[in-house]
Specification:
It contains six helices and ten strands; from the N terminus they run βαβββαβββαβαβααβ. By secondary structure, the chain is α+β, with helices and mostly antiparallel strands.
């Protein structure tokens, strides 16, 4: 089984191409997955973006939504709210978190404690920013990315208890403003699994 990501603006053409390649196509619509079965036996499972499916799949995928985004790594964070592809509001920040050390004994333990304290302070700063940007806003969806443990640490803040990532994970190396502004390419993409 292979997987492809298709931008919502290309989804209608992709579906037409599937029918051209595999013959008359049967469609089974579910709230979270739309299954395609070609006349030659080829199958495709289209994950509904921001389920449940409301009406036509292509129209549903192309609908503009207000999406909250949180990106966190040990050294930085970015939080933003998008209306469609437009970044409406955001906050980006960074903190120094010391890297690992090869020192042994007491020094290693001292550096580990320092790193843990620096990370805790950085995550608290990220939680403050996320609370300012992502609470009190009516969101149609919420996605997160970066380091999973770091995101979990930030979302453990009680002010962010209402935010549950929708299952998509945004792959980002460095949570900067430019990276945040480019995330709609990832969170708006439609995931399709193909067999064969």
């Amino acid at each position: 089984m292979r997987e492809v990501l298709v931008g919502p603006e290309r989804l209608e053409r992709w579906l037409a191409g599937f029918a051209e390649r595999h013959g008359e196509t049967g469609t089974t619509c579910g709230a979270e997955v739309v299954e395609l079965l070609g006349a030659d036996g080829a199958r495709a499972w289209v994950d509904v973006p921001f389920p449940p499916l409301a009406g036509d799949l292509v129209a549903h995928a192309n609908r503009d939504r207000r999406i909250g985004v949180l990106l966190v790594r040990r050294g930085g964070y970015a939080a933003g709210v998008f209306a469609g592809r437009v970044l409406e509001t955001s906050k980006v920040g960074s903190s120094y978190v010391q890297g690992g050390t090869k020192a042994g004994g007491w020094s290693q333990q001292r550096y580990a404690r320092r790193r843990a304290n620096q990370a805790t302070a950085a995550f608290a700063e990220a939680a403050d920013a996320a609370a300012r940007i992502l609470t009190g806003v009516a969101l149609d969806g919420f996605v997160a990315g970066g380091d999973r443990d770091a995101v979990r640490a930030v979302l453990a803040d009680p002010r962010l208890a209402h935010l549950q990532p929708d299952g998509r994970w945004l792959e980002v190396k460095d949570p900067r403003l430019k990276v945040l502004a480019a995330t709609p390419d990832q969170f708006r993409a439609v995931r399709i699994r193909l067999d064969p």
